[in-house]
Amino acid sequence: MSANLPARMIAIGFAQPGGPEVLQPVELAVPQPGPGEVLIRVSHAGVNRPDVVQREGKYPPPPGASPIPGLEVSGTVVRLGEGVDGWFPGQKVCALVSGGGYAQYCLARADHCLPVPPGLPMDQAAALPESLFTVWHNVFERGWASDGETILVHGGTSGIGTMAILLGRLFGLTVIVTCGSPEKCARALELGAAHAIDYRATDFVEEVARLTGGEGVNLVLDMVAGDYVARNLRCLAMDGRHVTIAVQGGARAEINMAVVMTRRYTLTGSTLRPRSDTFKALLAQEIADQVWPLVADGALRPVMDAAFPLDRAADAHRRMEAGDHVGKIVLEVARG
Predict the structure, then answer these.
(1) Distance from CA of residue 171 to its chain's centroid?
(2) Alpha helix locations (H) across 182-276?
(3) Which residue, of 219, 253, 269, is where some domain finishes?
(4) What is the pTM of this model?
(5) For 79-117, what is each residue's pLDDT tens digit?
(6) What is the residue range of 102's domain?
(7) What is the DSSP string of 139-168?
(8) What positions does the domain Enoyl reductase (ER) occupy (predicted)?
């Protein structure tokens, strides 16, 4: 290692799947960037639902990915791998990674990084990649959302939900969300949702019909699956699109395919982590072109919930599992 970089680092890992308490500090060798990679001294790491599912043993990292949790980071480039250009040591970046974010140093594909513009705090930079890549791809690429359409988003105050509200507002969508309390509904409306439905107090299918004059929504962004799918389809307008990005309510769904045919529905879904490096690079480039100018001028900022020191990753997971958060949870690894 060069004189200004240590040989060892602290990361947060787990020996066996389990509850938040299995997350423990471990000492590891600082990784070395391979061709096309950069090494980032991590400032902050985002905490996401897939991290929790991985910790539970239900979402193993893809082949070749770090077993350390963490799918997004912000920090400073400290070393370049072979063939990397466009980045330089000392540059502040945020990155989508396939693992390894809960650590003092993290490898990232150079073409999965985005520059941190002046005025964007590093904690907010770390909170952008996972939700931004996910929402952009699934709402605008897979879901074909366009100006003037209406979208229903479940989990409206989650990291994904808040990003969907923000992007929807910026790109001309009418966003209807579901939330689990009046307080969360009020917060979603503050963020720019056109309507917020308390799903514990109201049948969201009936409420969507009322809000849309019986027409339905053009798109559903679904994180629940299970028995929500059939209910979601009842919310869709003719030619509606249904995009599933998580299966928190169960992986199996029973639907009436005759309804799908007669109303010309499109059902799709995706998971981001296993996608190829090339796909993620192309997605990063599209986001750099279409969305990053809004970040640079301050029009798009993630909704932040809480920051925890790296050694309190277990507490960050407990907060996420409690379901009380609004927006993004991050780990503070180092300042700067």
Answers:
(1) 18
(2) 182-191, 204-211, 228-235, 257-262
(3) 269
(4) 0.95
(5) 999 999 999 999 999 999 999 999 999 999 999 999 999
(6) 8-128+273-332
(7) IIIIS---TT-EEEESSTTSHHHHHHHHHH
(8) 18-331
Distances 215 to 209, 238, 259, 263 between C-alpha atoms, Å: 7, 8, 15, 12
**Helix, coil or strand: residue 131:** helix
- Residue that terminates a domain, selected from 269, 300, 321: 269
As beta bridge partners, residue 29 has 8
Q: Are residues 322 and 258 in the same domain?
A: no
Asked if 197 and 207 touch (Cβ cutoff 8 Å), the reply is: yes
Same domain for 294 and 245, yes or no, is no
d(CA 197, CA 205): 10
Residue type, 237: A
Whether residues 124 and 136 share a domain: the answer is no
Whichever domain contains 169, its CATH number is 3.40.50.720
User: CA–CA separation, 109 vs 277, rounded Å?
Assistant: 8
Q: Is a pLDDT exceeding 80 seen at residue 203?
A: yes
Based on the fold, state whether residues 167 and 245 are members of the same structural domain. yes
Nearest Cα to Cα of residue 137 among 291, 250, 328? 291
d(CA 131, CA 46): 10
Decide: 269 and 249 in contact? Cβ < 8 Å.
no
Of the candidates 55, 98, 67, 122, which has an alpha carbon nearest to the alpha carbon of residue 314? 55
Looking at the structure of the chain, the number of domains it has is 2
